[in-house]
Amino acid sequence: MQAQLNELGHGFADPALCSQSVFRHALDALSLPGRIAVLDASGPLKNMQTPRGAHPAAAALLLALLDQDCKLWLSGGFSHSDAAAWLRFHTGCSIVQDPAQADFAWVAQAAELPLLARFSQGSAEYPDLSATCVIQVDSLQAQGSGWTLSGPGIEGSTQLHVGGLSPDFCSQRRAEQAHFPCGLDFLFTHGLSLVGLPRTTQLES
Fold it and tell me: Closest Cα partner for 104 from 96, 55, 112?
């Protein structure tokens, strides 16, 4: 076991300060939907060694968001990665096999995202018990063909293109938004970039 632990990559150099910095980026991303942020590789991510198949931004987000009380579901793209062991070691989280049991989901490739209905949507009494999905996508662009976003945190509307998601993502999301305040929150990443899509944001394709 010790040898296996020694093979795991480093997490944050300063867990407290780095987690706080990345956590603020996550809050900003969900407060300002559609605005692409880029994490500083020489800042909180310095010396972090990500698991195989992991985007640095996604790995950093999960290091900051997870703790020993969190349940994480991983998509099949991480089946041959040390992502599960890396996060268990650095955060104490537990890994679940059923998306419905997960507080967080980490999707290695956008095409692997399950049907949204498979994730916990929370309840009217406890909408905060829904899942947050961290999805690694093929590309992120703030303009051009893609979605039109509107709602809280957006002045008027804004454009966002997310590469690699299923064409029916928007229709699935509209279906789950019908049960607001229940619903899912999303953080999309590509490399060092990240963008938030909370349940309050309206989406048109």
Answer: 96
CA distance 56 to 63: 11
CA distance 184 to 162: 17
Of 190, 187, 185, 189, residue with least CA distance to 201: 185
Task: State if pTM tops 0.85.
Answer: yes
Q: Span 34-48, mean pLDDT?
A: 92
Q: Which two tokens stand for residue 47?
A: 């010396």
Q: Which domain holds residue 48?
A: 2-200
How many domains does the chain contain in total? 1
- The CATH number of residue 114's host domain is 3.40.50.11310
Determine, yes or no, domain membership for 188. yes
Contact between 21 and 41 under an 8 Å Cβ cutoff? The reply is no
